[in-house]
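Task: encode each sequence below as structure tokens.

Item 1
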Amino acid sequence: MRTIRCHRDNGLVKQTLNSPGHGAVLVVDGGGSLESALMGDLIAAAAVRNGWAGVVIHGAIRDRAVVRTLDLGVKALGSNPRTSAKDGAGEVDVPLEFGGVTFTPGATLWADEDGILVTP
């Protein structure tokens, strides 16, 4: 598992998902904001091309109809068609905590329609 903390800026998300994923899951703490999307269909397609298994976003995505057709597990709080900033502000590979769960880089994450499980 890899992690990113950012707020209404998906520059680091795009950069990370455009790098080799090696079957990992990217967890993004967007602070729970639904004001703009942190991932859309183009970034999700790049994740597939680069071997990412999934993305968990504590925030919004866009282009849900296309994203759901991709071979990529995606969990998000909701959707919003508004794009985010692209400045690259945020932190990469830091421990995150939301939803009563701590997401630590290097941990293992499993997810299905019912929820998410994380183990060290």
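Item 2
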Amino acid sequence: MTDPNFSIPTPRLTITYLQPTSDTHCDFLLAVYTSPEFIRFSGRTTLQTREDVRQLLAGRFRAEHARNGYGSYLFSLTKTNTPIGTVSLMQGEEPNRYGAPDLGFAILPAYMRRGYTKEACAGLLAYFDDKVGGRFEALGLFNPENVASGAVFRSLGFEDRGIHELRVFGGVKGAVWARPGMSEDLKGVYQF
């Protein structure tokens, strides 16, 4: 997560690491995580300052990359280098971890409904498909009331696997989607 030259290009976006040393990255993430749209579906945030975000990036986010080889990424408009969203593959720590990472995303409200989130997700999945030499397994876990998230997963070709209790998120009921070809046995293979 420390390579400042790492990037995944897509037609309109550049996906990079979030850098805890960058005030721009910290301020951007604070704006996303405190937006009413993010809070509505993800719950309240404890982040209140740039320093709170810096500690999150340097701590938990960096540890996730070190443990799994993937984590949270920034996506920016290529033409202007403007940060507009995040895309992530998160798997958590034992014992609260699923057998495949959760593909997640967040975007500034001003850039919603323009296809940027789908493009970032598709770009990240293609990168990891290439890296593993096949289909990289990923789940989509989200609040069932979040119609926009469901639309993104549907557009990416994910399959609806129903509503399940998400123990990793404190037992809340959540929509579960999976990439095609993943096992139907969510409880056995993916430890639901």
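Check on item 2: Residues 50-68 form the longest helix (19 residues). The two ends are 28 Å apart (CA to CA).
End of task.
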